[in-house]
Design a protein that fits this description.
The complex is a heterotrimer of chains A (about 300), B (about 325) and C (about 280).
Chain A lengths: L4 H10 L4 H40 L2 H5 L13 H31 L4 H14 L3 H16 L4 H26 L2 H9 L4 H29 L3 H4 L19 H10 L3 H29 L5 H13 L1
Helix pairs in contact in A: 2-12, 4-7, 4-9, 4-11, 5-7, 6-7, 7-9, 8-9, 9-12, 11-12, 12-13
Chain B lengths: L4 H7 L2 H31 L1 H7 L2 H4 L3 E2 L6 E2 L2 H31 L2 H16 L2 H28 L15 H25 L3 H9 L4 H30 L2 H6 L20 H8 L9 H39 L1
Antiparallel strand pairs in B: 1-2
Chain C lengths: L18 H5 L6 E12 L2 E12 L3 E5 L6 H7 L10 E9 L2 E2 L8 H4 L2 E4 L11 H11 L5 H14 L3 H4 L12 H14 L4 E5 L7 H14 L4 E5 L3 H7 L2 E6 L2 E7 H6 L4 H7 L5
Parallel strand pairs in C: 3-8, 3-9, 6-7, 7-8
Antiparallel strand pairs in C: 1-2, 1-4, 4-5, 9-10
Helix pairs in contact in C: 4-5, 4-7, 5-7, 7-8
Classes of the chains: A mainly alpha (about 300), B mainly alpha (about 325), C alpha/beta (about 280).
Chain lengths: ~300, ~325, ~280
C-alpha cells in the first residue's frame, strides 16, 4: 500500500473547487436543449395554426364539392382533388398492402436466411428512396409505355412507397406473436398457411393495421411522384387511364398562383389534407398503438384510476 | 422462427409450398424493383450520357431550347448537397438536443413532447412548402436574412445577394425542420440503448448531467448518432416539394450555390419543375432522368452507410444487455 | 424470497431501536450515519425505516435474501436514487456532519467523497485503462499530467491491478477480463480519493480467483477507508467484514459485529438465514 492518508489529503487539496461552475454549465446546457425543443415545436404550432386559421375561411360546402373555378377567381372548389386523393389511396393500398403483408410474412416466418437478411436491409434502404425517383420509375414503366398519364401509374408509385412500410411493421407485429401459438397450430395438424392467416395474423392484427394506416398517412401527402403520373386535372374522376387530381397537387398549383383568393383556397385544401393525415395518425395512437403512444397511455391510466 | 423444423416438414404439403413461394416472391419484390429501377434509369438516360458524357456531371449549362441543347447537372448536384448539408448542420444539433431532453425528462413531459415532435413527421412535405412560402419566408426574410445581409453582405460573400426569402438558406432551414423528427427519434432510441450502468458510473464519479452525457452517453452511442444524422441527410437529399417551392428555381450556372441568399435548384426540384414539360423526343427528358439516376445513387450510398451504422449500434446494444 | 422455508415471519420482537447503542462496545468514530431511511418506489416501500451507523476504517457488510432492499439501501448512501424515476427517499444520511439529503446541497458535492463499485463491471468501453481511471479527476479539474500519472499508479496499485496492466495503460478497458474490469472500476472509484467506498456485490459476476483478489483488495483498503459492502454470499461477509447487518423485507433485522452475528444471532430470523434455511 503506497498511499498514505497524508498523501491522499495532498491529492484532495489539488482538486479544484469547481462544482458551482460545473453546475452552472449544466444549467446552461439544460436551458439550451430546452430552447431546442421549443424551436422545434414552434414550426409545428405555427403550421397548425396557420392552416387552421386560413383554411377555415375557405371551407364551404361548395369548396369541398365543386370543381375548380377559373384561375384567380376564387370560385369553385377542390372536389376532384379530394375524390382523387381518396381514389389513389385506395388503389395504392390495393396494390401495396398485399405485397407488403406477404413480404412481412416472408421476413417473419421464413426470415432466417441470407435472402431474407438482404431483403430486410434493402427494404429499409428502399423506404428512404427519394419519392420523386419512384415517380419517374412509374412514369417510365407505365406512362411511357401506355403513352398517356394514368391513375394506375400514380397508384403504382404510391404503392412502392407503401409496401416497405407495411412489410416492416407486419414483420415486427408477427414476430411479437409467441412461438407457442404456431406450435399449438402445428400440434393440431394445421397447415402452415392456415396457421399464419388464422392464428398468427389474427393475433398480430392491431400492429399490422397500425402499420397500414401509417403508410396510408404517409402516401396521402405525397406530391412529387404524382406530378409525372396522374398529372393533375380540374375534372372529376373519369377513368383509370386518364389524368386525375389529388389534394397535394392542387395545393401546389394553388400556392404558386399570385392571387390571394387562390392561396386562400390552397390553405383550405391543406386543412382538408392535414385533417385526413393527422386524423389517421391520431386514430392510430388512439386505438391501435400497443401502449407506446401518449394517448393510449393516458387512456390506460384513466382506466386504471377508474378501477 | 421454425423451432421444430421436423414437424413442419412432415406437414409440408403442396399448399404450404405455394404459400412459401408466394411469400418469397413478395419478399424478393423489393430487390427486383430496385434492380429494375436502376436499369430503367440507366437505359432511359443513356442518350444524355452518350451526347454529353462526363460533362453532364461537371457541366453547368442547362438549356432545353431546340438546337442549342446543353445539359450540365453540376449546379443541381451542388445545390442538393449544399442544402442537405446545411439542413444537417442546423437540424442535427437541434435533434440531438431534443433527444437528450426527451430521454431525460420525466415521462409526463417527455411522452407528450416526443409525440409532438413525431407529429412534425406526419405533416406532408407540401404543407411545409405552403407554410414556408406564404408564412415562414416573410418572417425569415425580415428577421434573419435582412439583418445578416446588412451586417455582412458587403464583406462576406456568403451573405451577398438579395435577401428575398426564396433562396438556399430558407430551403435549408425548412429541410432542417423536416429532418428533426427522424434524427431525434432515432437518436433517442440509440441513447436509450446506452446501459444504465454506464450512466451510473459517470454519476458515481460526481458528474453533472451534462458531464454524464459527455462521459457515458456520447462516446458509447457515437456511431449510432452519426448514423442517425446521415439518415437525416438522406431525407434532406431526397426531399422535393418544400424545397421546390422555396429554393427560387434558378437554372444553369446561376443555380450554382455561392451565397446563402441566392436562388438555386436541387436535383429533385429541377425534376419537379421541368419533368412534365420535357419532350420525350428531345434530350431534355433523358437529362432529367439522368439527374434522377445521380440523385438515386447518392441517396442509396447515404442510406446504406446510415443503416449499417445504426444497425451496428443496435447490435452492440443487444450484446451489452446480454453480457 | 421464493425459497422461504419458514412461514412469513412477523417482525414483532423489534430490536432495531436498540441497535445503534448496543452494537459497539468500545468508543468508535462513525463516518456515516443513516437515520430512519425509507425508500419508496411508487407506492411500494423498498426500504423501511433503517437506522445504521458505519464506523470509520472498517468494513460493514449488508446481507439478506435477494429483494430484501440491501442494494436499494446502499444506493441511498450515494443518492443514486436521484436518477431512478419515481423513487423517493425519506430520512437522513449523515456523512461526517453533512446531511446528504439536505435539499440545498447538490449530490455531486459529496459523490466525490463516496465512491461506488457496482455489481457488474462498468468501465467506459470507449476509453483506455488510463482514461477510465482519470475520468473523475478530470471532472474535478486536475490537469497536471504528473499528478494524474501518480494517482493512476496509486489507484491501480490499491486495486491490485497495476502489475497486470502497467505496460499497456493505453489499452481499451473492454479488452480486460471481467475480474480485471471490476478492479479497474475500483481503481476508478479510488482515484477521486473518496472517504467512503460503497460496493454492491462487487464479486457476484466474477470467478473464484478474481473474487479472492477483490476480497484481498478490500482487506487492504479498509485500513484507510470506510467500506460498506452488499453481498449475498455469507462466507464473503464473514471473510471481509467487521460488522454485518441482516436485512429482510426492507427492514434491518439485526446489526452486530460480524463474528457475533454469525455465531450467536439474537434474532430467530437471522439465525435461520445464516444457517441457510432460506435465502
Amino acid at each position: 500500500m503506497s498511499t498514505t492518508n497524508e498523501k491522499r489529503q495532498e491529492y484532495r487539496a489539488l482538486f479544484k473547487n469547481n462544482v458551482k461552475k460545473r453546475l452552472l454549465v449544466d444549467k446552461i446546457v439544460h436551458i439550451i436543449i430546452f430552447a431546442f425543443v421549443i424551436i422545434a415545436i414552434i414550426p409545428l404550432g405555427s403550421i397548425l395554426v396557420e392552416v387552421f386559421k386560413n383554411g377555415i375561411t375557405a371551407i364551404s360546402y361548395e369548396f369541398l364539392t365543386a370543381t375548380p373555378g377559373s384561375i384567380g377567381s376564387g370560385d369553385g372548389g377542390i372536389g376532384p382533388a379530394i375524390q382523387g386523393t381518396l381514389i389513389i389511396i385506395g388503389l395504392a393500398s390495393l396494390i401495396g398492402v398485399p405485397i407488403g403483408v406477404m413480404s412481412g410474412i416472408f421476413l417473419s416466418e421464413y426470415g432466417d436466411n441470407r435472402l431474407a437478411r438482404n431483403v430486410r436491409f434493402f427494404n429499409d434502404v428502399f423506404m428512404e428512396f427519394p419519392s420523386i425517383v419512384l415517380g419517374i420509375f412509374a412514369f417510365l414503366v407505365i406512362v411511357l409505355i401506355l403513352g398517356h398519364f394514368s391513375v394506375w401509374a400514380g397508384a403504382f408509385a404510391l404503392a412502392l412507397i407503401m409496401f416497405p412500410i407495411v412489410a416492416r411493421t407486419t414483420e415486427e407485429s408477427l414476430k411479437m406473436v409467441p412461438i407457442t401459438y404456431r406450435e399449438a397450430g402445428t400440434a393440431l395438424g394445421l397447415k402452415k398457411w392456415v396457421i399464419t392467416f388464422r392464428i398468427v395474423i389474427s393475433a398480430a392484427k392491431s400492429g399490422m393495421i397500425t402499420g397500414i394506416l401509417l403508410s396510408v398517412s404517409r402516401i396521402g401527402g405525397e406530391t412529387a411522384p404524382l406530378i409525372m403520373t396522374i398529372l393533375g386535372s380540374s375534372q372529376f374522376f373519369s377513368g383509370l387511364d386518364v389524368p386525375m387530381d389529388a389534394l397535394p397537387l392542387r395545393i401546389w398549383r394553388l400556392s404558386l398562383l399570385p392571387y390571394e383568393s387562390s392561396q386562400l383556397q390552397g390553405w383550405g385544401a391543406a386543412l382538408v389534407l392535414i385533417f385526413i393525415i393527422i386524423g389517421i395518425n391520431m386514430a392510430i395512437r388512439y386505438h391501435f398503438a400497443n401502449g407506446n403512444g401518449i394517448i393510449t397511455r393516458l387512456i390506460k391510466q384513466g382506466v386504471r384510476t377508474k378501477r | 422462427m421454425e423451432k421444430n423444423p421436423d414437424a413442419y416438414r412432415k406437414q409440408s404439403v403442396r399448399s404450404d409450398k405455394i404459400f412459401k413461394l408466394a411469400a418469397t416472391i413478395a419478399g424478393s419484390f423489393v430487390l427486383v424493383i430496385i434492380a429494375l429501377m436502376i436499369f430503367q434509369l440507366i437505359s432511359e438516360s443513356y442518350p444524355i450520357w452518350e451526347s454529353e458524357g462526363l460533362s453532364f456531371i461537371i457541366g453547368t449549362d442547362w438549356n432545353a431550347v431546340e438546337g442549342r441543347e446543353s445539359f450540365g447537372a453540376l449546379p443541381y448536384i451542388a445545390g442538393t448537397l449544399v442544402t442537405a448539408a446545411l439542413a444537417m448542420g442546423i437540424g442535427v444539433p437541434l435533434s440531438i438536443g431534443i433527444a437528450m431532453f426527451i430521454s431525460d425528462a420525466p415521462a409526463k413531459i417527455g411522452g407528450p413532447l416526443g409525440f409532438l415532435v413525431e407529429l412534425l413527421a406526419a405533416v406532408p412535405s407540401i404543407i411545409y412548402g405552403l407554410w414556408g412560402l406564404l408564412v415562414f419566408r416573410l418572417y425569415f426574410q425580415d428577421w434573419v436574412e435582412k439583418p445578416l445581409h446588412d451586417l455582412f453582405g458587403d464583406s462576406i460573400f456568403l451573405f451577398s445577394g438579395t435577401p428575398f426569402g426564396l433562396d438556399i438558406i430558407t430551403a435549408s432551414v425548412i429541410l432542417a425542420i423536416m429532418i428533426i423528427p427522424t434524427v431525434s427519434s432515432v437518436s433517442r432510441e440509440i441513447m436509450k440503448a446506452v446501459p444504465q450502468q454506464q450512466r451510473e458510473a459517470a454519476y458515481m464519479l460526481g458528474a453533472t448531467k451534462w458531464e454524464m452525457f459527455k462521459l457515458a452517453v456520447f462516446p458509447y452511442s457515437k456511431t449510432g448518432l452519426i448514423g442517425a444524422s446521415i439518415l437525416g441527410l438522406g431525407r434532406a437529399v431526397g426531399e422535393t416539394m418544400a424545397v421546390t417551392m422555396l429554393i427560387g428555381n434558378a437554372t444553369g450556372i446561376s443555380a450554382f450555390p455561392s451565397s446563402f441568399f441566392k436562388p438555386s435548384q436541387t436535383m429533385s426540384s429541377i425534376i419537379a419543375n421541368e419533368f412534365v414539360e420535357a419532350s420525350p423526343a428531345s434530350l431534355h427528358l433523358p437529362a432529367l432522368i439522368g439527374v434522377a439516376l445521380i440523385l438515386l445513387l447518392i441517396a442509396i450510398v447515404i442510406n446504406v452507410i446510415a443503416h449499417l451504422l445504426v444497425t451496428r449500434m443496435m447490435k452492440i446494444k443487444e450484446g451489452a444487455i446480454n453480457n | 424470497m421464493t425459497a422461504l422455508s419458514v412461514s412469513p415471519p412477523k417482525i414483532t420482537n423489534s430490536i432495531d431501536s436498540e441497535i445503534p447503542s448496543s452494537v459497539f462496545n468500545e468508543e468508535k468514530k462513525f463516518k456515516m450515519i443513516a437515520e430512519n431511511v425509507s425508500v419508496y418506489y411508487g407506492n411500494t416501500m423498498g426500504v423501511k425505516n433503517v437506522t445504521m451507523k458505519f464506523p470509520e476504517k472498517s468494513v460493514t457488510a449488508l446481507i439478506g435474501p435477494s429483494g430484501c432492499g440491501k442494494t436499494t439501501f446502499l444506493r441511498c448512501l450515494n443518492r443514486m436514487h436521484d436518477m431512478t424515476k419515481n423513487a423517493k427517499v425519506e430520512g437522513k444520511v449523515m456523512l461526517d456532519d453533512i446531511d446528504l439529503y439536505d435539499k440545498s446541497i447538490d449530490p455531486i458535492y459529496h459523490r466525490r467523497k463516496v465512491g461506488m463499485v457496482f455489481q457488474k463491471p462498468n468501465p467506459f468501453p470507449t476509453m483506455s485503462i488510463y482514461d477510465n481511471v482519470v475520468a473523475g479527476l478530470k471532472l474535478n479539474g486536475v490537469k497536471d499530467k504528473r499528478i494524474l500519472d501518480e494517482i493512476v499508479e496509486d489507484s491501480l496499485k490499491m486495486a491490485y491491478l497495476w502489475d497486470e496492466v502497467k505496460n499497456d495503460l493505453k489499452k481499451s478497458a473492454i479488452e480486460l477480463s471481467g475480474g480485471q474490469q471490476q478492479r479497474l472500476c475500483i481503481a476508478r472509484a479510488l482515484a477521486i480519493q473518496p472517504e467512503v467506498l460503497l460496493m454492491d456485490e462487487p464479486a457476484s459476476a466474477l470467478d473464484p480467483i478474481a473474487t479472492q483478489k477483490i476480497e484481498e483488495t478490500i482487506m487492504e483498503l479498509k485500513k484507510e477507508y470506510t467500506i460498506i459492502i452488499v453481498t449475498h454470499n455469507m462466507q464473503q461477509a464473514v471473510r471481509v467484514s467487521d460488522y454485518t447487518g441482516f436485512m429482510y423485507l426492507g427492514e434491518l433485522i439485526e446489526f452486530r459485529e460480524t463474528k457475533k452475528l454469525f455465531t450467536d444471532p439474537k434474532n430467530e430470523l437471522t439465525a435461520k438465514y445464516v444457517q441457510g434455511h432460506f435465502g
